[in-house]
């Protein structure tokens, strides 16, 4: 059975009519010096007993950023498969007014350096930024790029 995750893609309109999305740079030593393909929407796997994808997405946003996600409304953009077989269900909401200053990133532990027997803590996310859609396409991990297309299609359909 494939791994399933859920996440939230926040967007906002710029003064010149452009679209920006909120991305998170993945934390930890593997991603530290990378930019292209090293960013993600805040997302994560379902926990035991969690059935609603939006509940998982909202919980993961809170865990990764240390702040509650916007109240919504949310729309489901779709479920997007990764080459690995993992599937992520992405929800979208307007993030206008969200303050990045209050973010406090969650942490994870791993053996570091490899095969050292020592455990180190790293932030799940080491920074978050509002990014234009074109730049976001290059920055996002490959499996999440189709969510940008779905967002733009939805905004076009809504006349935004």
SSE series: EEEEHEEEEEHH
| Shape assignment | globular
Number of strand segments = 9
Q: Sheet bearing the most strands, described? A: 7 strands, mixed
Low-confidence stretches: none
Count of discrete domains: 1
- Rg over CA atoms: 16 Å
| Mean pLDDT figure | 91
Helix content: 10-25%
Query: CATH H level: which superfamily?
Result: Nucleoside Triphosphate Pyrophosphohydrolase
CATH class descriptor:
Alpha Beta
Q: Structural class given helices, strands, pairing?
A: alpha+beta
CATH architecture: Alpha-Beta Complex
H/I helix tally: 3
Q: CATH topology, what is it called? A: Nucleoside Triphosphate Pyrophosphohydrolase
- Strand content is 35-45%
Termini separation (Å)? 38 Å
Folded structure, characterized:
- The protein is of the alpha+beta class and 160 residues long.
- It has one domain (4-159): Nucleoside Triphosphate Pyrophosphohydrolase, CATH 3.90.79.
- Helix content is 21%, strand content 35%.
- It has helices at 53-65, 133-139, 145-158, and strands at residues 4-13, 19-26, 39-40, 43-45, 75-81, 87-94, 107-111, 119-123, 125-132.
- The strands form two sheets. Strands 1, 2, 3, 4, 5, 6 and 9 form a seven-stranded mixed β-sheet that branches. A two-stranded antiparallel ribbon has the order 7-8.
- A hairpin with a 7-residue loop joins strand 7 (107-111) and strand 8 (119-123).
- The model has no long low-confidence stretch (mean pLDDT 91).
């Amino acid at each position: 059975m494939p791994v399933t995750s859920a996440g939230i893609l926040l967007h906002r309109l710029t003064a010149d009519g452009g679209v920006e999305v909120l991305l998170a740079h993945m934390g930890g030593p593997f991603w530290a010096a990378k930019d292209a393909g090293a960013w993600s929407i805040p997302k994560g796997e379902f926990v035991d007993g969690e059935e609603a994808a939006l509940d998982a997405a909202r919980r993961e946003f809170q865990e990764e950023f240390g702040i509650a996600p916007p109240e919504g409304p949310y729309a489901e953009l779709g479920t997007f498969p990764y080459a690995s077989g993992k599937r992520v269900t992405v929800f979208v909401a307007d993030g206008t007014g969200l303050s990045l200053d209050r973010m406090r990133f969650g942490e994870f532990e791993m053996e570091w350096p490899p095969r050292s027997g020592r455990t180190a803590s790293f932030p799940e996310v080491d920074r978050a930024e509002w990014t234009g859609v074109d730049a976001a396409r290059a920055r996002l991990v490959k499996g999440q790029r189709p969510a940008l297309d779905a967002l733009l299609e939805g905004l076009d359909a809504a006349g935004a």
